[in-house]
Amino acid sequence: MNLTPKQKIFADEYLIDLNATRAYKAAGYSVKSDNAAAVEGYKLLRNPKLDKYIQQRLKDRETRTEITQDMVLRRWWDIATADPNEIIHLRRVCCRHCFGKDHQYQWRDEEEYRQAVETAITLAKEQKKDPVIPSDAGGYGYDRLLRPHPKCPYCRGEGHGEVHIQDTRDLGPKAKLLYAGIKQTVNGIEVKMQDQGKALENVARHLGMFKDKMELTGEIGVKIIDDIGSDGDEGG
At how many degrees (to 10) do helices 5-17 and 34-45 cross? Predict the structure, then answer.
């Protein structure tokens, strides 16, 4: 494969980070600006011999690392389509009156009610007043995770909103890829996630859904439109 020394350096540099502008300058080509380097770099990528060399190097890398483009594409797609609600979500939970008898205040169990009575008696003694004993007419069995009762006269079916962070040990495969860790801040816990928009963009570019164009304005005002990825002559 007959590549010039500069072309080979360009290709090897391009394979590092797929940055044609940087690779063009690293190869030692004379450039007036980054914009010019970008144009000439993309022109080089259209060179059939150079493209064949790059594709062969990529295949060799896949064989050596056992990491294929399909594997990377699948990972991007899984991140892009993961459901963030598996990690963190806002949920509406029922109020104490939603499922109490006749929508009266409902207690979790008899122990909670007993502690409430003792607290009321202790507080009354401290204030030297008659105790106001809470009623248990609403019964027991309060489960705050139930969805609000649509006809509850107290919360009107809205319950209470609360932010819930899932135990990350129990995340599904896609959610585990989306999850990028947590950070403790002065305001609480900050959940970090991968950029789903960027992941979807990577998938789209890999599949050729975007047709990038570079536009230059010549000294006499003529616009030159360069369709990246089309066939053309070697630059540089």
Answer: 100
What distance in Å separates the CA atoms of residue 187 and residue 130, rounded to the nearest whole number? Answer: 41
Q: Which amino acid is at 166?
A: Q
Give the residue carrying structure tokens 């011999």: 49
CB 208 within 8 A of CB 24: no
pLDDT tens series, the chain, 236 aa:
688 999 999 988 888 877 889 999 999 998 888 888 888 988 898 898 998 988 888 888 777 766 677 788 889 999 999 999 999 999 999 999 999 999 999 999 999 999 999 999 999 999 999 999 999 999 999 999 999 999 999 999 999 999 999 999 999 999 999 999 999 888 888 999 999 999 998 888 777 776 554 444 444 343 434 444 434 444 44
The continuous run of DSSP H or E covering 225 comes out as strand 223-227
Q: How far is Cα 139 from Cα 129, in angstroms, rounded to an integer?
A: 27
For 115-145, letters b (16+ CB in 10 Å) and e give eeeeeeeeeeeeeeeeeeeeebebeeebeee
Contact between 150 and 157 under an 8 Å Cβ cutoff? The reply is: yes
Bridge partners (DSSP) listed for residue 162 = 91
Return the sign of the alpha-carbon dihedral for residues 27, 53, 227, 73: negative
Q: How far is CA 193 from CA 88, 189, 203, in A?
A: 10, 13, 18
Where are the domains positioned within the chain?
Answer: 88-162
